[in-house]
Amino acid sequence: MADRSKGGGIVKKISTGIDGMDKLLYGGIPENEQILLAGGPGAGKTLLSFEILYRNAKNGVPSTLISFEEEPEDIIRNAKSVFDTFNDIDDLISSGKLAIEKAESYERIYQKGDDTSNYSFGHIVSEIEDMLSKNKAKLIVIDSISIVKLLFPDVFSYRRSMMSLTQNLRRLGVTAIFTYELQTSSRQDLKFTREFFMFDGVIILYQAEDDEKRSLVAEVVKTRGTNHSWVLSPYEITPEGFSFMTVN
Predict the structure, then answer these.
(1) Contact in structure between 205 and 216 (CB atoms under 8 Å)
(2) What's the CATH superfamily of 2-244?
């Protein structure tokens, strides 16, 4: 899938496989770019990331989720519980089209209390690259950089290391989604942090509350070099997957 860039050229895009989300992104995620998917607790960041990987794996795109916190079996169990119509998850994993991995090096580094952050992060980058090579992945999710951030003693080291990681992924020809935990679920209280400027694209999942119920809303804040919808899109998490309401 392709789209006209803001400069008039053609930008190749990877479909998310979710119709309403592709409409918000004007066709999908720009190929070989790095997207930040941010939201508060309960917004569905990991589930949405999983569904994007699942849909692409079904279409033959090798896809990998790398978790820094949750165990792979827990992620798979939760996805099966929520998306109970996704009855071919195990088949996709067995065939190698879909991989759910745990970044074990982070856990070892964190337990040791190693304060040489750049050296430690180098181990994590090497582990990620090994996973991508093993799985031949072209689309990945890293869940989440909020955990990785704890390794670094200062903003400069964190920013430099994350930029190095995104450049490596770009060099490897990988399209990536990084999940990020927001301190607030409200759009009104949102403050732009350095993460919003480090990535090619930013998608935010909000939660709004009134006296009756909580509602979920998505917004595409930016996609570098290409157009996107500026409409806030309510969404639901259903057994058939995410459902985004879009306005033409």
Answers:
(1) yes
(2) P-loop containing nucleotide triphosphate hydrolases (3.40.50.300)
